[in-house]
Amino acid sequence: MKWLHFNLLFRPQPVAGEGQSHGPLPDRPGAQLTGRRFLTALPLSMITVREGDTAVDVCCGSGDLAFLLSEKVGISGKVIALDFSKEQLQIAATRQSAQSKACYKNIEWIEGDAADLPFPRSSFDAATIGYGLRNIVDRRKAMEEMYKVLKPGSKVSILDFNKSTSSLNSFCSGDWMIDYIVVPIASGYTLADEYQYLKSSIKKYLTGKELEQLAREVGFSEAKFYEIGAGLMGNLVATR
Ligand SMILES: C[S@@+](CC[C@H](N)C(=O)[O-])C[C@H]1O[C@@H](n2cnc3c(N)ncnc32)[C@H](O)[C@@H]1O
């Protein structure tokens, strides 16, 4: 149940020195990615990110995806991680200082709006958004901004809950799962309101097909949506 709790609320993983033997991400090469960590790594596994690249993580929150991007681009690369929450950025920066990995120094935390990215056109080799697009009010503008700041031929990878259209998946993931499993558990943690928000935000989100269409409408040359975890999650990959 803890897994569900952490994955749905996206609480930051404890950093070294906070009761865990390792940091928010595996410190040891080959360390296993499980649960939340597996999901965090997923958007990166669907696009090519090379050493030396400049990448952006939009709606970075406390930085899980940015830390993984940082490991991929290495010390010769650069990661810009953007969020409009000062508080989240502060948590991310604190986690960065608590880590000893040299590459994490390549992350710069920027306070900004996903719908008005403060970067020049064609700045990035790759872009990611984890559980962010669903929460953005003007998603079209955010997609336009993403298109603008990517270099031609580069990709954005967008992970979130899947607003499924299949009746089987709606049964498993959408209403049934949240009403009969997630909310009762959350109530025990006095977190029911947050899960109710999750449910309503998934309802207001776009289906995979709608995400593909939006990406093409704003100019991406290719857009493909992948259902993950029996349709509970979904990842859109779009190529500028
Ligand atoms: C559910 S959290 C996800 C954080 C992180 N990507 C992760 O996977 O843990 C969503 C984040 O999106 C940010 N956010 C929502 N709308 C935004 C916007 N328009 N511009 C920048 N950040 C935004 C919130 O502040 C929050 O940190």
Task: Give a structural overview.
One of its GO terms (biological process) is methylation. GO terms for molecular function: methyltransferase activity. Pfam families: Ubie_methyltran. With about 240 residues, this protein is α/β, with parallel strands linked by helices. It folds into 2 domains: about 35-160 and about 205-240, Rossmann fold (3-Layer(aba) Sandwich); about 165-205, no CATH class. Helices cover about 40% and strands about 20% of the residues. A 7-stranded mixed β-sheet has the order 3-2-1-4-5-7-6, sandwiched between helices. Helix 5 (about 140-150) links the parallel strand 4 and strand 5. Helix 2 (about 35-45) packs across helix 3 and helix 7 runs antiparallel to helix 8 (about 190-205). The longest helix has 14 residues, at about 175-190. The termini are far apart. The site of S-adenosylmethionine has 18 residues, from helix 3.
Q: How many discrete domains?
A: 2
Q: How is the main sheet built?
A: 7 strands, mixed
Task: Extract low-pLDDT stretches.
Answer: 1-33
Which kinds of small molecule does this entry bind, naming each only once? S-adenosylmethionine
Rg from Cα: 17 Å
CATH hierarchy class name of the largest domain: Alpha Beta
Order of helices and strands: HHEHEHEEHEHHHHEE
End-to-end gap: 39 Å
Pairing-aware structural class of the strands and helices?
alpha/beta
* Total number of strands: 7
Overall geometric form:
globular
Question: What is this structure's SSE topology?
Answer:
Layout: H1 2-9, H2 35-45, E1 54-58, H3 64-73, E2 78-83, H4 86-98, E3 107-111, E4 124-130, H5 139-149, E5 150-161, H6 167-172, H7 175-188, H8 192-204, H9 208-217, E6 222-228, E7 233-239
Parallel strand pairs: 1-2, 1-4, 2-3, 4-5
Antiparallel strand pairs: 5-7, 6-7
Helix pairs in contact: 2-3, 7-8
S-adenosylmethionine binds next to helix 3.
